Amino acid sequence: MAYRAVPEHYLDGYAEILAEVATTGRRLTRGEVHELRELGERAAREGLGLRQVIRAHLAAARTAWPDLPGASDASGVRRVRSAAACVLAAAEQAVDALAEGYERAQLVAVRRDEAARREFIDDLLHGRSDLADLSARAERFGLQLAHTHTVAVARGDQPHDDTDPLTRRVETALTTRFGPRRVLLTTKDARLVCVAPGHQPDVVEYFAEQARVALAMEGTTEHGCRVAIGRAHSGPGGVVQSYEEALSALELADRLQLEPVVLRASELLVFPVLTRDRYAMADLVRTVLGPLRGARGGAGELVRTLNAYFDSGCVSAEAARRLSLSVRAFTYRLERIEKLTGVDPSDSFQRYTLQTAVIGARLLGWPEQEL
């Protein structure tokens, strides 16, 4: 491997320092150590490798050694050993100072890059930056915002950030499977976020599976683990739109207590339609389900009965099992609901009205909350 040569001025005064050390046996001064640290920082900023800089200083020490005071046999074996020990100690100090300065410069650069990345992600997901500027910055992070993108969001019981081992595990799985595709994996508001090309749905599907497995390994409960996938949209604004769809799917899943761990916004489009006119939905819930308040114990138990019935595909035996009831007791509840509401759950047309009202009750938090 070819290495870039270290400029000669990096070694200015180093041989003179070693000569003085060999003569006096002193350590490097505070000023000399400070200059070497600054030299290490400069090397990092100028793109020199740390190995190259250290090798150059060690080579300079080896070259200078024969001419240093006390290095010849004529001065006595003990004197030679003493000079050698002092020079090696000084070289050790020099290497340590160079490495410290180099690492400090790298740390500053990493933090600067992390801050720029975080700022870009915030602007990308919230659409707060000029679109032309955002597109230009996106190239640095491997995204071409003129294309379509899909955003998936994963949430667990515990918060996660970019340095979290779980985040790194999912990122490694994606890289191993798909290679260096234009995929951005990050975190936002303690959730994992994956931005992937819209024409490659297998990427977000694989992300959803890996996130689900990783969250389960972490101890996240099945109820706490959710992955939502937005729809594919084009342009910089498309990323924001897909991200917001994924967040809305997560919120909807919590409000409706949906069972699937992986949610797709394309499969939930009916719910925004139902909630677009809140007044009309509230009126439907009050009109259709309001009479259930007259039941002994209130409407809550009978609404849960209807939820189980519709969630089980209108199969009474399965719904009864979910509620830990006998089929006979469950059937009695359905009859009670029909008597109070005047709506027959077994009739296909009436069932649609009743199910829509039940969904509205979930969305509006009824009967726990007044409408």
Topology:
Blueprint: H1 14-24, H2 30-45, H3 50-64, H4 77-126, H5 131-140, E1 148-155, H6 165-178, E2 184-188, E3 191-197, H7 201-218, E4 226-229, E5 233-234, H8 236-256, E6 262-264, H9 270-275, H10 278-289, H11 300-311, H12 316-322, H13 327-341, H14 348-364
Helix pairs in contact: 1-3, 1-4, 2-4, 3-4, 6-7, 10-14, 11-12, 11-14, 12-13
Domain CdaR GGDEF-like: 127-252
Domain PucR C-terminal helix-turn-helix: 302-358
Protein name: PucR C-terminal helix-turn-helix domain-containing protein
Question: How would you sum up this structure, described in words?
Answer:
By secondary structure, the protein is an alpha+beta fold. The protein has three domains: 8-110, no CATH class; 134-267, Alpha-Beta Plaits (2-Layer Sandwich), CATH 3.30.70.270; 272-364, Orthogonal Bundle (Arc Repressor Mutant, subunit A), CATH 1.10.10.2840. The protein is 60% helix and 8% strand. The chain has 14 helices and six strands. The protein has helices at residues 14-24, 30-45, 50-64, 77-126, 131-140, 165-178, 201-218, 236-256, 270-275, 278-289, 300-311, 316-322, 327-341, 348-364; strands spanning 148-155, 184-188, 191-197, 226-229, 233-234, 262-264. Strands 1, 2, 3, 4, 5 and 6 form a six-stranded mixed sheet that branches. It is elongated, with a radius of gyration of 34 Å. The mean pLDDT is 86.
